[in-house]
Amino acid sequence: MIDIKKIKQEYKEKVHHISHADYEKGKVVLAGDCVFDLLDIDKFFKGETVYNNGICGDTSSLLLETLYKRVIKYKPNKLFLSVGSNDMGFDGKNVKEIYNNIIDIVKEIKRRSSDTKIYLMTVLPVNPAQKDSINRDYVDTRDNFDINMLNYYIKNYARKNRIKFIDIHKHLKNDIDQLNLNYSIDGFHLNENGYEIVTKLILEQL
Questions:
Q1: Phi, psi of 173 (to 5 degrees)
Q2: Which among 52, 57, 69 is positioned nearest to 10, based on CA atoms?
Q3: With contact defined as beta carbons under 8 Å apart, do 80 and 119 qualify?
Q4: 3-state DSSP call for residue 179?
Q5: What are phi and psi of 68, to 5 degrees?
Q6: pLDDT tens digit string along 58-116?
Q7: Quick one: which of 35, 77, 100, 201 has the fewest CB in 10 Å?
Q8: Residue 66 to residues 32, 72, 98, 111, 194: CA-CA distances in angstroms?
Q9: Is-above-0.70 flag for pTM?
Q10: CA dist 141 to 2, 14, 73, Å?
Q11: pLDDT higher than threshold 90 for residue 4
């Protein structure tokens, strides 16, 4: 069972740590949920200055609330955003609500850190396979139809507004639009193979 109280406490502690970090301005920042938080920067981004401000349990609402502490105060040169799945799993938000929050995040960054180049990442699908390894608490609270719809909105918004767009969903799904278990530990979180692909896609933009 998901321990929401523990997630919230760890989230608060991580925001405090990030907001007091000795980061150099004008660098690369990753912000969003566990897709980034669990990414080993030292291992996958050797020789690159990349600040990982992802936090497990992040939602579009929480990211919007903590945007200054995690992004804007550091005036990044490039910002990669990955958020949206937990809105469905934790908050029960619909696709339109999540999409509107993501738009608000982009607008706020443009308003308060105008030199930052934004890269929007698609939301990963889940894999509901009937296997013991599948994390049912996470997988069963999200629907791939909704995830595909959200990604469709994000993609169109990015194109219309000339925002960089990275489709990690396309590279990590199987042939029936589920998360490929070759890239996942539990049908939701990525394994090392998955992170190698995510890293490659990000490095192509650096």
A1: -90, 165
A2: 57
A3: yes
A4: strand
A5: -65, -45
A6: 999 999 999 999 999 999 999 999 999 999 999 999 999 999 999 999 999 999 999 99
A7: 100
A8: 11, 9, 16, 15, 27
A9: yes
A10: 11, 24, 34
A11: no
